[in-house]
Design brief:
The protein is built from eight helices and 14 strands. It has two domains: 4-144 and 255-286, Aminopeptidase, CATH 3.40.630.30; 146-253, no CATH class. The protein has 290 residues and is α+β, with helices and mostly antiparallel strands. The strands form two sheets. Strands 1, 2, 3, 4, 5, 6, 7 and 14 form an eight-stranded mixed β-sheet that branches. Strands 9-10-11-12-8-13 form a six-stranded mixed β-sheet, with no helix packed on it. It is globular and about 60 Å long. The two termini are 36 Å apart.
Length: 290
């Protein structure tokens, strides 16, 4: 097989069926509804469509794919000139593995982004992929994300400033993800996704302490029930110091420890930006686990 790399492009609806097929074939053990998720992920994001690089085999079959998703700008005004992206979906068909397509497609996207101006690519990598991102693709490690359960009555959601601006349109889009339902908790101004896990409903806290504008953007989301507020603990993940009062989830109970990573384009701008990111908060709202 001699795969051919297509030019980097913004997402279009015509590409999504082939991308969904590749993701289904590559991650057969993951029960993701790619046919439903990709239009939401790639086309409806108010920050803009996904940007990706594709590779095809001699028969025109999609065998390699790497995509980034535009994100709101960094909350720190010092970096207002940086475009921000999330390293999202990467897939290489089993028939095409071992040919360097992961690196080739990713580097093509990074070259494209750098030509558009100063950029930062944020990401969350599992234990199997983090070394590849850091060693081969120029990412910096920002440490593991903390993951903890908090009691339902917990209210002291204090901590570092958010990494990204909580743009109201982005928050509303995030709450429209297909799948398990979302609820909102007025006492903590938080957005929660309810995820069924082995017969139990897990309350995944995406973000607490939303601004008034962001909170109003969620006015159509159902309010968390009184019973849930009294009895259901919430699961919260973030970078930086986690709020006190939680019960950490041991690594052995996680599918894989999650590592927070970033790539700065051009790299000469990396040092001050990486230092800033160490002091801010990246959470479930900002990536696609929930």
């Amino acid at each position: 097989m001699n795969p051919t790399l297509a030019p980097v492009q913004s997402a279009v609806a015509e590409d999504l069926p082939a991308t969904a097929d590749l993701l289904h074939g590559t991650f057969a053990n993951e029960r993701r509804q790619w046919d439903l998720e990709l239009p939401w992920q790639y086309l409806r994001n108010p920050c803009g469509p996904a940007i990706y690089s594709n590779a095809h085999d001699e028969q025109g079959r999609l065998v390699g794919h790497y995509a980034v998703l535009p994100l709101p700008r960094l909350a720190n005004p010092k970096f207002e000139k940086f475009q921000v992206y999330l390293s999202l979906n990467t897939a290489v068909h089993p028939d095409a593995q071992g040919k360097g397509l992961f690196k080739t497609t990713a580097r093509a996207v990074y070259d494209h982004l750098e030509q558009r101006g100063p950029s930062i690519v944020l990401g969350v990598a599992n234990a199997a992929s983090v070394n590849g991102f850091i060693g081969s693709l120029g990412f910096y490690s920002l440490g593991k994300l903390s993951l903890a359960f908090y009691p339902p009555w917990f209210r002291s959601w204090t901590g570092p400033e958010r990494t990204l601006s909580a743009d109201p349109a982005y928050v509303a889009w995030r709450a429209a993800r297909p799948g398990a339902p979302f609820v909102r908790d007025a006492t903590t101004r938080s957005l929660i996704r309810v995820v069924p896990h082995k017969g139990v409903s897990v309350q995944g806290l995406l973000t607490p302490g939303l601004s008034e504008d962001a909170w109003q953007a969620l006015r159509d989301i159902p309010v968390r029930s009184r019973r849930s507020r009294l009895f259901d603990p919430v699961l919260y993940a973030c970078s930086g110091p986690a709020p006190a009062g939680g019960v950490p989830v041991p690594d052995r109970f996680r599918p894989s420890p999650l590592h927070y990573i970033c790539r700065v384009l051009p790299d000469k701008s990396a040092a001050p930006l990486v230092n800033s990111l160490h002091q801010s908060r990246f959470e479930f709202l900002d990536f696609d686990v929930l």
